[in-house]
Amino acid sequence: MGGENHFDNKTAYAKQEEVYFDDGRETELIRGILGSSDCEKMRGSPRKVLAAIDAFGRQKYLMNIGQEKGAIVTKLIATHKPKVMVRIPFTPCAVPGVVSCLPAFAVSSSNFMISISINAKKTRQPVVQVELGGYVGYSAILFADAVRAAGGKHFYCLEHNPEFFSIVRMLCELAGLGDFVTVIYGDSAECLRQLKSQGLFTQIDLLFLDHYKPLYLRDLKLCEELGFINLGTTLVADNVIKPGNPPYLAYVRATPEEKKKMAASADESRSADGGGSAENETSVEEDPKGNPSLIYESSLVESFEPTGIPDGVEISRCVGLLSDDMS
């Protein structure tokens, strides 16, 4: 599936440098926005905050999803429209690092809520919208605004960098989304396991992957093992062309039979590498096996990075489960 093959160069971000993040530019961004004479005009306006982030990105590169690919996801959110949304209290200390990374903020229980949507016309199974990787909050603001416009009640994301975590919260607050967006600090796998242990939801409705690229497949498999991926779950993976993510694409595009062969081959490789040692046993435990019986329909939507360089997002929908007697 292809996207629009046109990019407006007037909106292009600055060229991506060799060192392009976590070098002080994110602090420069938040200081520039909060110190701007237009800051109060931005308050309560996701559109204006996004415009300010884009304006900075045109001067100095930011690794945001950008307008082109962002529109693909917001259209997907608009068509989803969950029927019933239920807000369940989320205890900040239940997820590692949440409270300790909030010295500059008043921790209010109303700001830590998990969104669960129940599709009344289908199975009434609780479903959740999750974003892995928040960076400076561009996608959180863009998508949360879309979720709210579609009738949703809440949106939250996971971010492992404490500085980025704080910036996301500040910009979401400025955009008027402070009570709508929950940002959870910590390693994605650790947080997902903790959320599972809390029993806050049983299924993820929309999973957006835009964090450390080698972790896409690990975290998807972990979500499968935890039972978060079920019939109706949609996965959206960014940057599958630039820089690319062949292991992830191979997995979501494979049949259950092919995925089982991949798993068997990986097990054989571990055994050949001496998987019986204590060190290797730990490594195996940290590498989820997933649920190869899940069936995905997956397609690439071609688009552009905010710099104008071609990229795309992979949209995968879970459409079934291969039963044991058919495997």
Automatic annotation (TrEMBL):
Its EC number is 2.1.1.6. GO terms for molecular function: O-methyltransferase activity. It comes from Claviceps pazoutovae. This is catechol O-methyltransferase. It comes from the Eukaryota. InterPro entries: SAM-dependent_MTases_sf, SAM_O-MeTrfase. GO terms for biological process: catecholamine metabolic process; methylation. Keywords: Catecholamine metabolism, Methyltransferase, S-adenosyl-L-methionine, Transferase. Residues 262-297 are annotated as: Disordered. Residues 262-271 have a biased composition (Basic and acidic residues). The lineage of its organism: Eukaryota, Fungi, Dikarya, Ascomycota, Pezizomycotina.
